[in-house]
Automatic annotation (TrEMBL):
Residues 36-114 form the RlpA-like protein double-psi beta-barrel domain. This is Septal ring lytic transglycosylase RlpA family protein. It comes from Flavobacterium bernardetii. InterPro entries: RlpA-like_DPBB, RlpA-like_sf, RplA. Belongs to the RlpA family. CDD domains: DPBB_RlpA-like.
Length: 129
């Protein structure tokens, strides 16, 4: 083969980005409630319609809140564990005067400590766009 018949070399691009160059989305958070009491939905609600009209699924990252508008994104942080979960308000409740938020079982499992009594303390922050 002559040099003119050789295949052109393909450009090799570096797909690994440096840690400092990765763009992280900036969240604007507003503290809504510190040390709020959170509980979780029972499995009997799976498949039922929520107050917003969508079907409830205990494996989704959603929650119920009495006052916040549907579609509001929340950052929920376990007070003891410091674990974080992001959820969307899709339902009304909880209907217990000492509770502030009802999480799906999947969301609750992400922030709960190893031992708990069915409800935990969480910090609730509203994610602003």
């Amino acid at each position: 083969m002559t040099p003119s018949q050789e295949k052109p070399k393909s450009k090799i691009t570096d797909t690994i980005k440096k840690k400092d160059s990765i763009a992280k989305p900036i969240e604007k958070l507003e503290m809504y409630h510190k040390s709020a009491h959170a509980s979780y939905y029972a499995n009997k609600f799976n498949g039922r319609r929520t107050a917003s009209g969508i079907r409830f699924n205990n494996n989704d990252m959603t929650c119920a809140h009495r006052k916040l508008p549907f579609g509001t994104k929340l950052k929920v942080t376990g007070v003891r564990t410091k674990k974080v979960v992001y959820v969307t308000v899709t339902d009304r409740g909880p209907f217990h005067k000492n509770r502030h938020i009802d999480l799906t079982k999947a969301a609750f499992d992400k922030v709960k400590p190893a031992s708990y009594g069915g409800h935990i303390e969480v910090d609730i922050e509203v994610v602003k766009k």
